[in-house]
Structure formats: C-alpha cells, structure tokens
Amino acid sequence: MSDLTAAFARLDRGSRTLHGISATLLPFTPDGAIDFDAFATHVSRTNAAGLDVAVNMDTGFGNLLTPAERLAVIDATRATLGPGARFYAAAIADPTATDPIPSYHTGIDEITARGGIPVIVQSRALHGLAPVDLASAYTEIIAGCEEALAFELGSMFAAHGEIWDDDGYARILDIAPIVGAKHSSLDRATELRRLAARDRDRPEFRVYTGNDLAIDMVAYGSDYLLGLSTFAPEAFAARDRAFADGSLDFLAWNDALQHLGNVGFRAPVPAYKHSAAVFLHLTGGLPHATIHPLAPRREHAEADRELLADCARRLDRLALPA
After folding, report:
1. Lowest CB count within 10 Å: 33, 74, 81, 266, which one?
2. At a CB cut-off of 8 Å and minimum separation 6, what does 234 contact?
3. What pLDDT is recorded for position 34?
4. Rounded distance between C-alpha atoms, residue 31 and residue 9, angstroms
C-alpha cells in the first residue's frame, strides 16, 4: 500500500479515476474585444496538460456574453481541439424570459451540434421550485440530449445561482441523461451530503467539486470542475497524477494550489477572474491581464499582483527537478 493510499484509506471513496475539467478563462484584448488567439492558446495548453475544457462558464464570463459571442466561443473551442475531442460548454437561458426552457434548448442544440457536452447553468426563473417541479423542469430542459451535467452555484458567485435542498438534488440524480453535477456551495458539509447521496443512489454519477477553497474534496470522492484550474493547468495535472500514483507529492501540490485558491478567490469572490488573468499574464500564459469590461475587478491590483507572484514562485519550486 502506498503512503498516500494509507493516508487516505478512510477518505478516498472507491477506485474511480479522477476526472478534471477546467472552467476556462476567456481572455480579452485591451480594447475590450474577445482575444480569440489567446483563447485558442489557453485551450490548447489546458487540453495538452490533460484536463478537459469547459467554456462559457462563469470563468468564461458566459452570463455576460451575448448568445452570438457564446456560439463563437464554442466554435473556436471545437476548431482548436479538432474533431472528436471532448469538451463542455455552458447552456445559459435567456435571463429575460419568463419561460427559460426554449432558450435552454437553443443553447443545448448549439453545443451538441458541435460535439460538446452541455452544462446546464441555473436560471433565476427556476429558483425556489419544489423538488418535484425542479426535476420536471430539468427533464424538459434536457429532452433529447444524450449526456449533460447539472450545475448548482452559490449566490456568492452570481445572482442566478441557487443551492438545491437535498430532496431536489436527489431528484436530479434520478434523471438518467444527467451524468454528473458541478457543486459550488463552498461548503464541505453540503458537498459531503451530495457524495453520500451519489454513493447510495447512483454510484456512477460524478460530483464535480466547484469549491475552489477546498480543492482536496477529490480525496473524499469528488471529481472537479474548477475555475482555479485555469490559473495553472499543468500544476493541477501534476497533482492529479500524484493522486493516481498514490504519491505524497499530491499533498505538496494540493497545498500550493490551495494557497493560490485562497488568494485568487478571496472576497469579493467574483473578482477571481481578474486574479486569474493577472496570474496568467504574470506567468506568461496570456499577453494581457484584461477581462470582460463588465466583470468585477480587484480594487488593489498591484497588491493582488504581488500576492499572485508569490503563489507562482511556490508552484515553480515544486516544478523544479529533484
């Protein structure tokens, strides 16, 4: 038994292969346009590191993009990855619609037509539904779709997010085409209940942690769909390989990445996308640290830059040859 296997014997649930999906940052040029060249480079980098790509998520400013811009991002993703490569994309409802389901269908059709897997982003029009009505709505949303992910998002990230009650989540588990769900409450106890429900009711279902403040949830049985992984895809891949190998190097990588997460996702949480752009610019991954013109920014950008530079140095030390 490896050192890590022994250390996590009471924590790691089952023998599933860890699946990492990166909620990919969408870069912008200094004049406020989408930087598709930088985006293609970052998508290629993420894929080459061994992580799957998810676009138009919160990290990709999906709720701030027009439908045409979201479609252009999906097309750019497919063109960059080439035919047949797996990717995920947010299906986002029209926020002005009383009935969001037709616009969900449009988004899902655009994603699946290009070989992507939809991630159903919540809509405020569906907030507060009784569990049976929630399940009915999601069943209608994914009608005709072979595979999709659900997504529950804490309101600290965005106003359209909602954390379901346990009964509502259990009913989502019963919807066969929904093969997994991203969970972003930033609350370990709630995510552990999600894992318990998964283990009890549908063991093949994947709980994708979105807790950027507790990325070690993978040791408790979660997979991940994280915005934090877009800061440093290769470092996340190194952590995941160490986990798969049962190496204690997992702990060092995880600690350094969690330090980066604590810095990048400190309050106000939505400004993490600004931190991601600054970090990627600092480390040579992006030509600019520009984000969507309407997205929140760090108030003290220079201080943020210094903190993120220290995080980068810590990861660099781990990457040095032994």
Report:
1. 33
2. 45, 49, 319
3. 98
4. 52
Q: What is the phi/psi pair of residue 213, to 5°? A: -100, 5
Cα 261–Cα 203–Cα 153 angle in degrees, nearest 5: 35
Query: Residue written as tokens 């013109």?
Result: 293
Residue type, 23: A
Helix (H, G, I), strand (E, B) or coil at 59: helix
pLDDT digits (tens, 9 = 90+) for 136-168: 999 999 998 999 999 998 887 877 888 999 999
DSSP 203-240: TT-EEEE--TT-GGGGGGT-EEEESGGGT-HHHHHHHH
117 bridge partner residues: 88
CB atoms closer than 10 angstroms to residue 193: 15
| Parts of the chain with a pLDDT under 70 | 1-15, 321-322
Q: Which residues contact 37 (CB under 8 A, 6 or more apart)?
A: none
Contact 150, 120 (CB under 8 A): yes
The C-alpha angle with vertex 156 and arms to 62 and 116, in degrees rounded to 5, equals 30
Q: What is the pLDDT of residues 235-293, one digit of tens each?
A: 999 999 999 888 889 999 999 999 999 999 999 999 999 999 999 999 999 999 999 99
φ and ψ at 20, to 5 degrees?
A: -110, 125
Residues 6 or more apart whose CB falls under 8 angstroms from that of 85 comprise 47, 115
Kindly state the DSSP code that residue 34 receives in the 8-state scheme. B
DSSP 16: P
What is the value of pTM for the model shown?
0.93
Q: What letter would DSSP give residue 86?
A: -
